């Protein structure tokens, strides 16, 4: 079986939080298991996808900048009957944050979210009361890496509304309350492989920032999660990540209750270096799916 480990054209936008690139570490590990696997850039026109029996999404970290091309690429794989992990239908669903509505309708807790449709004009001052917060996070419905993400206060609402109304000419956006719990305690990430829990950590923003991504100076803190939080995280996986090789549940504890922020099923960093058994957990999950 020939396997493509799918990545992107790295232009230095994202720094690795570990000494070695996670893609390279995973590739070496899987090759040590005698798998025929190599890194392939998802939108490289030279790639002959028919040469591969299986494609594994790992780090197509620019897909949201090229989302129409990405959807066409998924359709191309589907047309050639090339199996993708995670499954194509789940990837399509997960690419747009409107999926949070589906999760909420299923009875699971998510961070309060208001979607603003492309072409609308809004005044952010109108949303502080509805979101019951004096700070709002604004980001595109299809996004990653904190692209076009703003933290809005009453004093900056007018200025950011002007920027946002320009951006709304191009795409939908989502408004959410800023969770002070993330600032104080951090954001949880739970990693699952083949539907089974592997490891967890807290991500914390650097002082004066609100973004927990390591490319913005955020730090990671491996944790053994409390049983009740792990039980809750598992529920999102059981309902919405069926037949997935990997999944990451991101959220925060608010008033003692876990609120989902993102269910990452496309290209999450997996923090494999933070858990001794993580690579083996990934491999075992892969073997069960192939």
Task: Please explain how this structure is put together.
The chain is an alpha+beta fold. It folds into three domains: 2-94, Rossmann fold; 99-110 and 181-289, 2-Layer Sandwich (D-amino Acid Aminotransferase, Chain A, domain 1); 114-178, Dna Ligase, domain 1. Helices cover 28% and strands 26% of the residues. The chain contains eight helices and 13 strands. The strands form three sheets. Strands 11-10-9-12-13 form a five-stranded antiparallel beta sheet. Strand 1, helix 1 and strand 2 (36-41) form a beta-alpha-beta unit. It is globular and about 55 Å long. The N and C termini lie close together (9 Å).
Essential attributes:
alpha+beta, single chain, Rossmann fold, Dna Ligase, domain 1, about 25% strand, about 30% helix, 8 helices, D-amino Acid Aminotransferase, Chain A, domain 1, 3 domains, 4-stranded parallel β-sheet, about 290 residues, 5-stranded antiparallel β-sheet, 13 strands
